Amino acid sequence: MIKIGVLCPSEIAIRRFMPALMKVNNVVFVGIAHASEEEWYGSISSNHDLTVLNTDFAKAKDFVNHFGGKVFNSYDEIIKSNEIDALYIPLPPGLHYKWAKKTLENGKHVLVEKPSTTSLKDTEDLVSVAETKNLVIYENYMFNFHSQISSIEKMIDDKLIGDIRLYRITFGFPFRGITDFRYNKKLGGGALLDCGGYTLKLANRLLKHNPKVVEHTLNYVNDFDVDIYGSGTLKNDLNQVAQISFGMDNSYKCELEVWGSKGVIFTNRILTAPVDYNPVVKIIVGNDEKTITLSSDDSFKKSIEYFINCISNETLRNNTYIDLIEQAKMVEVFKEN
Asked: What is residue 161's three-state secondary structure?
């Protein structure tokens, strides 16, 4: 039985992680931590406004009232606790490296929200620590486990649309507000690290044969100090191409288009399908157009199950290290001028 804790009462932990965790076998939820005053501000002082910390504590209390477990009164307390084997870290990306490394150094497995860190160097360091201690460091791109992707890959392999000419992946959403961490550089914001990472992850999977980023653009607007939208091109050893585009001040899109020599495959919820959603795939071959409704799936649950399997399966664990580095390398290319 794997004993797991959560590092903060974030929205994704409440809305997605815990409902999925409750369905996973051989796992027990131990508790949730909120930040201490010193962890939040770097010191303890009568001058600090504790409103945010008090709100976080209230959320943690509501969290355990709903899901069970106990409240840990600091990140450090839960990281060092002998009551847990693994920790889920849903903090903003700029905080992932610090707390994931501390967790690994204290002998705990880590399931961290995407992206794993904000730099290739930091990701490589986490992998090095995890390898040395035979621990899991796993980046939660849960969409990768949705059965709709396997179904579309089978359509491609079966030559339903002939030979592949182009993959086009698009993911963007409207502006979420100035207080959202995605627009804060210090917290690891930026479209590349957020929605851009999704498009890179899927492009890497579809291209298969040693894909590389060959073109890339990041765009800055409205005086933000983070990239707001971007695009790029990936090419593999077979000269197959994927075009990606992403943004966080855009009209909503979450699309995959596969253009073949004989037809096209298209779907519009490739990266964000909810648990109860049945993906719809459109296939156009010549003048023939048909729509296929696929099965719903719980990709978050399957992602957690994969993480748990990595704990006892060395091959899966090593593959996860490789996946982390590959993803971080592609993201790093986008930062080059």
From this structure: coil
Residue 42 has pLDDT above 90, yes or no: no
% of the chain with per-residue pLDDT over 90: 92
Task: Say yes or no: 220 and 134 in one domain.
Answer: no
Decide if pLDDT at 310 tops 80.
yes
Q: What are phi and psi of 258, to 5 degrees?
A: -115, 115
CB 199 within 8 A of CB 170: yes
Answer yes or no: is pLDDT of 150 > 80: yes
Both 126 and 56 in one domain: the answer is yes
pLDDT tops 80 at residue 50: no
- Domain with 326, as residue range(s), is 2-142+301-333
312 shares a domain with 285: no
Q: Using an 8 Å Cβ cutoff, are 34 and 78 in contact?
A: no
Is cis: bond before 115, omega within 30 of 0? yes
Contact 99, 79 (CB under 8 A): yes
For residue 93, pLDDT beyond 90: yes
**Is-contact 319 215, C-beta < 8 A?**
no
The candidate with the shortest Cα–Cα distance to 91, out of 171, 188, 22, is 188
Q: Which runs of consecutive H residues, i.e. helices, occur in the chain?
A: 11-12, 18-21, 37-41, 51-67, 75-80, 96-105, 120-133, 147-157, 197-207, 299-312, 314-334
Measured distance between the N- and C-terminal CA atoms of the chain, rounded to whole angstroms: 48
